[in-house]
Amino acid sequence: MASPQKENGFTPLANEILERLVKTALLGAEFQVLLHILRKTYGFRKKDDWISLTQFQKGTGLSRPTVVKSLKTLVLRRIIIKSINCDYSFNKDWETWVVKTALLVKPAFITSKHRLTDASKDRLTHKRNYQKKITKEITETKVSTKKSMKSNSFKYNENKHTDAFESVIDYETGESPKYVPKPKSNFSIQHELSKMEEIENSHQDIIATFIREKKLPVENVKQLRAIQYRHTQDAKRLEGAYTNQQILKAIDEVKRMKDVDWTLGTVLKVLTK
User: Fold this and answer.
1) Structural contact between residues 128 and 136, judged by C-beta atoms closer than 8 angstroms
2) Cα distance between residue 72 and residue 207, in whole Å
3) pLDDT at position 158, please?
């Protein structure tokens, strides 16, 4: 059973302030944040205090976005004051509080008389010529924007970074950056196959044998990776289960078949039949 006593600590607050707070419409979260500030300031005999958002979260049980929103509203309503150092203090001058929240909202746009004309009895509508003027201005703006983008397109493409070019800046002459093609990496299928064959009877070695025996045209790394991905599962089933001699013998048997676009899966079927 809770038994709070004044002797264990209390927050001195004038009755006049409490009466004004009772008459001030605050959201629940805003009131919680305000009470937490009073506890951290007046509760410790201080006028202001630096309070982190984490302390607000732990003290109120509110989420961080709710705390931030509530603090912003309380500051705008001048109920609390936030210093440059992020110290919070309670504004006890209640006469400066913004009691009516409608004062914080920007006034709505009021249509002027020159934009309205009589369409029929007791009705008003926007002038057609005004709408056409707006449409014309927007169209002209779009056309001019497109022209400027078109004129600057060469400059944009010139400065665009691509993998095919690299910038070479001449610092002595001060000329604009020139672009020269990057040297293409020399792809050698024989070199790649030799690396795959380093571990004998591994699934990579079996795939390399398949590429050599079928004489697949591999022109770049991308094609090689695609072949590896497509045949890895069958190659792993052959790995360790059959020797290279058995696999080559099965490949020779498959080659003698007519009109067969064979794969490692076909070799596996020959060995397991």
Assistant:
1) no
2) 65
3) 42
In order of 59, 194, 208, 240, 260, the CA distances from 199 in angstroms are 64, 10, 11, 12, 29
Helices marked H in 128-243 — which ranges?
Answer: 128-151, 153-159, 189-196, 203-214, 221-238
CA distance 260 to 273: 17
How far apart (Å, rounded) are the C-alpha atoms in residues 216 and 235? 16
pLDDT digits (tens, 9 = 90+) for 243-269: 988 899 889 888 888 777 889 988 888
Q: Can you list the pairs that 4-13 forms with residues at least 24 positions away whose Cβ atoms lie under 8 Å?
A: 9/43, 10/43, 11/38, 11/39, 11/42, 11/43, 12/42, 13/38, 13/42
Q: Where are the domains of the chain?
A: 11-104, 189-272
| Cβ-based neighbour number of residue 196 at 10 Å | 19
CATH 2.120.10.30 at 11-104, yes or no: no
Residue whose token pair is 């079996």: 206
Predicted TM-score (pTM) of the model is 0.39
Q: In the numeric block, which tokens belong to residue 53?
A: 């958002």
Cα 166 to Cα 106, 162, 163, 182, distances in angstroms: 52, 8, 8, 6
For tokens 């709070």, the residue is 4
Q: Give pLDDT, residue 67.
A: 94
